[in-house]
Amino acid sequence: MPLVEPESTVSWKQMYFACLAPDHSGDIDLEPDAVRALLAAVGEKSVVATGAALDPRLVINSTGTTVWTALFALALSSGTHSISAVAKGEYSLFVSPAPIRSAFRSHIQWPNSLLEQHPIHPRGASLLVIPFLHFELHPAPHALSHSIRSTDGRLELIHLGAFSDEDPGAFLRDLAALCIAHNDRTAPKTS
């Protein structure tokens, strides 16, 4: 088995919560305690996370940097002891939503053809993602068995997923499948 270094991005799994936000307008930023509660629901105790709930089309910025790489860089900039402590399971590190929002505000890097092939438009809500980093030697988080509301009630978590740099299109495929399932569940009943 290769050596696992907490100071290397390859040692961290790029995870996200997919969320529905009814009546979404403006930015949604969760407080650290709200993020902690969501992470605890899937058994996560020690991660690098942010409270920024992002439009999934914005997770890759104009330079090609993913939100997860930015989370890692911001965590590392707080000192290697911090990211090492997270890797040891000593605590979670929360990155303020502000630098995430400024770097991932409006640019859509995805090709239009891919967005058209995998539409991510749930009926009656906006789809958002909350990114976080999971150290690969920690136990895997539990799958969501049912949806979970954020403590402030603004978000309904419907999925726990992983982003892969090797197959970023899988992210859109997974989210599109979630939207199709949501739209089927919320379709008006015909008689």
Molecular structure report:
With 191 residues, the protein is α+β, with helices and mostly antiparallel strands. Helix content is 31%, strand content 21%. The protein has one domain. The protein contains 6 helices and 8 strands, in the order ββαββααβααβββα. β7 and β8 form a beta hairpin. The protein is globular. 32% of the residues are buried.
Q: SSE layout and pairings?
A:
Elements: E1 12-21, E2 28-29, H1 32-41, E3 48-50, E4 52-53, H2 67-77, H3 80-87, E5 93-95, H4 97-103, H5 112-117, E6 126-135, E7 148-149, E8 156-163, H6 169-185
Parallel strand pairs: 3-5
Antiparallel strand pairs: 1-6, 1-8, 2-4, 3-6, 7-8
What amount of the residues lies in strands?
A: 15-25%
What is the alpha-carbon Rg in Å? 16 Å
Question: How would a crystallographer describe the biggest sheet?
Answer: 6 strands, mixed
Number of strands: 8
Low-confidence stretches: none
SSE run: EEHEEHHEHHEEEH
Q: Name the average pLDDT.
A: 91
Structural class: alpha+beta
- Share of helical residues: 25-40%
- Report how far apart the termini are: 59 Å
Number of helices: 6
Brief descriptors of the model:
191 residues; alpha+beta; 6-stranded mixed beta sheet; two-stranded antiparallel sheet; 6 helices; 21% strand
At a glance:
By secondary structure, the protein is of the alpha+beta class. It has 6 helices and 8 strands; from the N terminus they run ββαββααβααβββα. The longest helix has 17 residues, at 169-185.
